[in-house]
Amino acid sequence: MRVLVLGSGGREHALARALHRDPAVTALHCAPGNPGTAEIADNHQLDPLDPTAVTELAARLGIELVVVGPEAVLVAGVGDALRRAGVPCFGPDKEAARIEGSKAFAKEIMAAAGVPTADARVCETAAQVEEALDAFGAPYVVKDDGLAAGKGVVVTRDRDVAAAHAAACGRVVVEEYLDGPEVSLFALCDGQHAVPLLPAQDFKRAYDDDEGPNTGGMGAYTPLPWAPDGLVDEVMARVVQPVVDELRRRETPYVGVLYAGLAITSGGVRVIEFNARFGDPETQVVLDRLATPLGVLLQSCAIGGLDPETALEWRPGSAVTVVVAAEGYPAAPVKGGEITGLDEAAAVDGAYVLHAGTKLGAEGRLVAGGGRVLNVVGTGPDLAAARATAYEAVSRIGLPGSHHRTDIALNASQS
Q1: Is 102 a member of any domain?
Q2: Which residue intervals define the domain ATP-grasp in the entry (predicted)?
């Protein structure tokens, strides 16, 4: 099987790594990829948001499966273009990708499918925002209706901050605050059936103890020792399958991964949001544990042949990933700093490094090219061991001014 992965971040490096391990994958390509994917795949410099460029590359390379990483690629209609060209694509078409591309559309789908979620109001004027803030009270939750790279949500007790975020976004969804821990669950879908992956938890705030601004994610871990029994079955029955059924009823079948962001509230499971792609950085730990070959699994979704009784195999133990971020991230990340110590980090037993925001600078030196620069993955027989391994590897990496959280999976490892 000849596979093309679209995207350039840590999620795409994790996807490429998992596909590289699948014996059925005979050729692996990334576009544009990054210096990490270049070690296991052929990188191609193109804009993945350009449907024509992507379909032409897929045709030239004889690609049999395209795996889409970023949400913006899906919302741009690249999946539609590939399917028209007869290329199997793991990733929903433009219309189905609105489940992430529009928070208001996601609420509409959930209402039609009877999915439990927070009460919400779609607001387009300042007056509507003020009324919604009055109705729901603090903590205030304000979400940009469109794509915002995982950073379009503000949760705050400061009403002025909430109102300012709404004014900066334009059309927003204001909703009630959901209490309880958050869980990410990915489900692989072929338009009719869905199969779950392991649940994971990520850490959105920039600093320890969930302080600081929202980010794209500063770390993640799996499995979740504290998760309620039967959680995955409940989410598949009450959330994922009803959404897949509703989209199919609307003649926009959902093909790809449906990412359900959940809150385990005092009143039960509630959906915070849906994403139309693999989450970042949760993918890095979930795919680490997956023993079932990934390529064949994703291709079966792309061609409509996913067996709903598929029993995935998982490696025993745990995985923890820690994000090493550039100085100034998320507000104004400093790019160009030289990265050192990757060989030393990879030498830690049970650890490896995924490239998230790196590039080759002068004289071929590896430098920071984005805000979230590296994903350092640690594995072990339990969360405490995986955590220790990840942080030992992080300690061997050098990047001037960089920062990372020190509490990823800490509480869960002590439970």
Answers
A1: no
A2: 107-303
H or E element in which residue 78 lies: helix 78-84
Residue 114 lies in a domain: no
Residues 6+ apart with CB under 8 A from 301: 90, 188, 189, 190, 255, 256
Nearest to 260 by CA among 53, 116, 397: 116
For 59-79, the pLDDT digits (tens) are: 999 999 999 999 999 999 999
In a domain, residue 115? The reply is no
Domain count, the chain: 4
Same-domain status, 147 and 189: no
Q: pTM of the predicted model, to two decimals?
A: 0.93
Range of the domain at 263: 182-303
What gap in Å lies between CA 131 and CA 114, rounded to an integer? 25
294 lies in the same domain as 261: yes
Are the C-beta atoms of residues 159 and 140 closer than 8 Å to each other? yes
Average pLDDT, whole number, for the chain?
95
- Do you find a cis peptide bond into 32, omega within 30 degrees of 0? yes
**What tokens does 212 get?**
């600081």
The CATH number for 150's domain is 3.30.1490.20
